[in-house]
Amino acid sequence: MDLKTALYALADLVMIVAGFTYGFKFVRNYQNYLLGLEWIIVASSGTNFLVYGLIGANETSPMFDAAFFLDAFSRSVGITVILVLGLMKVTHGCKPSIAVDVVVFGLAIVAGVVMSLFAADLGVAGAIFYVVMNALTTLFLFYFAWRLWHIAAHRNAVAVVAVTVAATAIAGMYDFYRIPGDDQHHTIFYILALTTWAAQMIVYYCGYRVLHDQNERISATKVLVP
Q: Count of domains in the chain?
């Protein structure tokens, strides 16, 4: 195993651990199934991606189709609409019902199927759709960072901005730019991408926790002060 392959595997493992760890924490600690399940789905995608690479599977493998679907699932609705709705629980007090959660994940499944099955037909239009969805999500994440800055959680705010900018760069590179010297499997790109996605899941969880705790303190104060 060469250095690039080892770094790729390490970055993927970090993302897998981050996704499962903080996904279960979102569910257990905050009953936020939108973010919890999406984090777990990203971790599952990373697991599939890692096994696919380690066993040397080819494009005829069901794992290849699964990788395409899970990637499309998250890029279209998962780390866009689901992420925003999940974070709105601490930014706007929005608490979607189970029915809404089911509908949103159903929409993500449909989008994942369409975007993965018809990727070749969509061509540039599909890539542009992903970039637009990412850009709109980025605007909300900057607002999320501002809310953290507003309560003096400066480190969390800066971390959110940093990983969001990095993720936006990755999204732009995904379909439109090839890193000079990268191999045919885009190993260097995926090392950067997997590391960025792992950082996002950790940083957004930490930011969510800070805003949740702040909201709890405000609610407690309102109860104590008549």
A: 1
